[in-house]
Write a structure and sequence with these properties.
Blueprint: H1 9-26, H2 39-44, H3 56-62, H4 76-89, H5 93-118, H6 126-130, H7 132-144, H8 150-153, H9 159-180, H10 184-204, H11 211-222, H12 234-255, H13 260-267, H14 275-294, H15 319-335, H16 341-352, H17 379-395, H18 400-424, H19 429-439, H20 444-456, H21 460-470, H22 480-495, H23 499-512, H24 517-529, H25 533-546, H26 551-563, H27 567-580, H28 585-597, H29 601-614, H30 619-631, H31 635-648, H32 651-659, H33 668-685
Helix pairs in contact: 1-5, 1-7, 1-18, 4-5, 4-10, 5-7, 5-9, 7-17, 9-10, 11-12, 11-16, 14-15, 15-16, 17-18, 19-20, 20-21, 20-22, 21-22, 22-23, 23-24, 24-25, 25-26, 26-27, 26-28, 27-28, 28-29, 28-30, 29-30, 30-31
């Protein structure tokens, strides 16, 4: 059985150029689209991939061998491409988008080649053989230009999805070519490519684990003889696929020390749904995905969806019908595999490649990028049907036959326009989260991210209102966005002087998540600023008990001890802090104040001078040094320091520090009187010019 015939090079070249042109047009407005959501932890804030030199240790860090360099997912291949992007482009997002778009184009091309090859199977109607090139091209275009793919292409971090799809498809293509090779050498080469590509796919993202099952599916549907019987090699291939998947998946889990059973069992502890609820909800999600794929208008696409969780088979009422529909689609595809092989293959491939992300794993319910791989062949049977009917109608001289290809071309153009339109929403954070919040108003993530953007741009009142609303909305992870909303509300409240309200929010955070270190530290700072030193000390002691080597915790404790006139205890905390991180401004300044309290003016001044070298434009350092001179009656040094202070900083700045009740200054009134007298003396020394008329 000859599946892959030699195709004229010109046809392939023209097909590639058409794919290139259409993909470039549809995605031409994405090259400067901003960073979004998971781009930040995985790229912008991930030191592991921020490679600045082409060194072995940097490459090892990027692929996760050196885990101390950052918080890597076990996806070394994709992480390495991000590291290379960083090496070449840094934070310039254009280079990342160019790579993503190149991967997407290659995926469309390999999809085209696979369809060309499989179209030569004797189980495929003869009419499809003759028009295999145009059918494959239109099917690949409908997939590549479908607006639902924008989340996997324009969203930079979803290279995890697109890159694993490329290697997955390359592995499928290599398997098909090897399966059809007459020469042992060629077979070994193509199957070597297939195995290597599968390994790379697994290193790009874990859902490639299902690839051996896709090989079995291709064998089951296309590699039959003229009588519909399975290949005599089917059992051997089935066994080889099982062994290969066990080795690769088991190896990946072992290398990255992943306890998959424990991860599944305990993964749902952090979700607002159970394993049973997820399994009942996913059939509705899968049918929703299909509706988006075949009716992908931008108004139906969103980064978030308000999707009700199925609590049982009848709540919501669509749960049981959705389960039955999915079951009937799969069973129906298996039953018609001999009569309708393309339809059966497209349906089974779709559901098969949703098994990883739409079954038992404790993942979020809905994400559009999960359709990138499963949807690859859905338009193949439809395109083939259009051209079969076009051939039948044209043979009878009916003009309607000419309209069908025009209609298919029109759908391609509409898809391209929809993709271009949807990509407008990815341009900026504001546009993306405004769009998401409009479409998913019950999503806490949408509300929080929009509020964050509003807060950054100075719209504090609108941001606060959204944060307050987000506290009561649906969160894909238990308490996650409630904690973020309350913490950010605390920051906004503190900026407007509402410290009590800020404290209330942080205390609420700690009731939800007692282990939340940032909230507890922020609360300790607020208590300090409010003069509630004992309450602040309670929080700091809690933090230091669990994190004894955190310099910022030690520095705040030292400050609180200074306020309690416990200089020796403060110095002990400072010594520990400086041993961990030498040269810190806060620790050096606190050391100076502690020595000043203990009466050692010389050591105090030494530390103040050290602090000044670290923070030369910090007025607090000058004030502390001045206070040390004044307290020890060093009039000349005090006068010179006062002159320096008054020349370097505005009176308003100095007055603000002296009016602040909680800082390193101990005797504000004495210092204020000294400065006032010094200003008066300076003014007397300035000659007054008489104006002449």
């Amino acid at each position: 059985m000859q599946l892959v015939n030699a195709i004229p090079q010109m046809k392939n070249t023209m097909a590639f150029l058409v794919l290139l042109l259409m993909v470039l047009i549809a995605y031409s407005n994405t090259f400067r689209a901003e960073w979004h959501m998971d781009d930040h932890p995985n790229i912008l804030n991930n030191p592991a991939i921020q490679m600045t030199a082409m060194r072995l240790d940097a490459i090892k860090g990027a692929i996760g061998v050196d885990e101390a360099r950052g918080n890597n997912l076990p996806r070394p291949v994709t992480n390495l491409t991000f590291a290379l992007n960083w090496y070449a482009h840094g934070t310039n997002v254009v280079g990342y988008h160019l790579v993503n778009l190149g991967i997407h184009l290659l995926n469309a091309w390999v999809c085209y080649l696979i369809i060309i090859g499989l179209s030569q199977s004797p189980v495929v109607p003869a009419s499809d053989h003759r028009q295999g090139t145009v059918i494959a091209l239109v099917a690949a275009l409908l997939w590549a230009l479908n607006p639902i793919q924008t989340q996997a292409v324009t969203y930079v971090v979803q290279r995890y999805t697109s890159l694993t799809t490329f290697f997955y498809l390359s592995a499928l293509y290599g398997y098909i070519r090897g399966r059809l090779s007459d020469r042992t050498r060629h077979m070994a080469a193509w199957w070597g490519l297939a195995v290597g590509s599968y390994l790379l796919a697994m290193g790009a993202k874990e859902n490639a684990a299902i690839w051996p099952a896709a090989v079995i599916l291709i064998e089951f549907v296309f590699f039959r003889d003229n009588h519909g019987r399975l290949s005599p090699h089917f059992k051997k291939i089935l066994l080889a696929a099982a062994i290969l998947s066990t080795l690769f998946v088991g190896g990946l889990l072992a290398v990255f020390n992943i306890d998959i059973i424990n991860a599944i069992i305990h993964g749902f502890d952090g979700r607002p749904f159970t394993l049973a609820e997820r399994l009942m909800t996913q059939p509705r999600v899968l049918l929703f995905y299909l509706s988006q794929i075949f009716y992908p208008i931008p108004q139906r696409l969103s980064l978030e969806h308000d999707f009700a969780v199925s609590s049982d088979w009848l709540h919501p009422w669509t749960t049981l019908p959705a389960m039955l529909t999915v079951g009937l689609l799969v069973i129906g595809a298996l039953l018609v595999v001999r009569k309708r092989p393309l339809t059966a293959f497209a349906i089974l491939f779709f559901f098969l490649n949703h098994v990883v992300e739409s079954s038992i794993l404790p993942l979020e319910m809905v994400f559009e990028h999960r359709n990138y791989l499963p949807s690859l062949f859905l338009f193949w049977p439809l395109t083939a049907w259009v051209f079969r009917w076009q051939a039948k109608l044209s043979s009878h001289g009916r003009a309607a036959g000419q309209m069908l290809p025009i209609l298919a071309g029109g759908v391609v153009i509409v898809f391209a326009a929809g993709t271009f339109t949807r990509n407008l929403d990815w341009q900026t954070e504001r546009r993306l989260w405004l769009d998401t919040y409009r479409k998913a108003p019950q999503s806490a993530r949408a509300a929080v991210n929009l509020a964050n953007d509003l807060a950054r741009s100075g719209h504090s009142a609108q941001a606060a209102a959204l944060f307050e609303k987000a506290i009561h909305l649906y969160s894909p992870a238990k308490n996650q966005f409630k904690v973020i909303a309350r913490s950010n509300l605390a920051t906004l409240y503190s900026q407007t002087g509402r410290r009590d309200a800020a404290v209330d929010q942080l205390e609420a955070v700690l009731r939800l998540v007692p282990q939340n270190r940032p909230a507890r530290y922020q609360l300790a700072n607020f208590y300090t600023e409010m003069g509630k030193f004992s309450k602040a000390m309670t929080q700091i002691d809690w933090l230091l008990e669990r994190h004894p080597d955190a310099p910022r915790f030690l520095n705040l404790k030292a400050f609180l001890l200074i306020k309690d006139e416990r200089a020796e205890a403060a110095l002990d905390a400072i010594r520990r802090s400086l041993a961990i991180k030498p040269g810190q401004r806060d620790a050096l300044l606190a050391a100076g104040v502690a020595y000043a309290i203990s009466g050692d003016a010389t050591k105090a001044d030494w530390f103040f001078r050290r602090t000044a070298t670290t923070a030369p434009r910090d007025p607090m350092v000058y004030l502390c040094r001045l206070e040390n001179f004044v307290a020890n009656d060093q009039d000349g040094a005090a006068a010179r320091m006062a002159n320096t202070l008054l020349k370097a900083f505005a009176l308003q700045t100095i007055d603000g520090l002296l009016s602040d009740g909680v800082n390193a200054i101990r005797d504000r009134e004495r210092l204020r009187r000294f400065l006032a007298k010094r200003i008066e003396m300076i003014a007397e020394d300035i000659p007054i010019r008489e104006e002449t008329s």
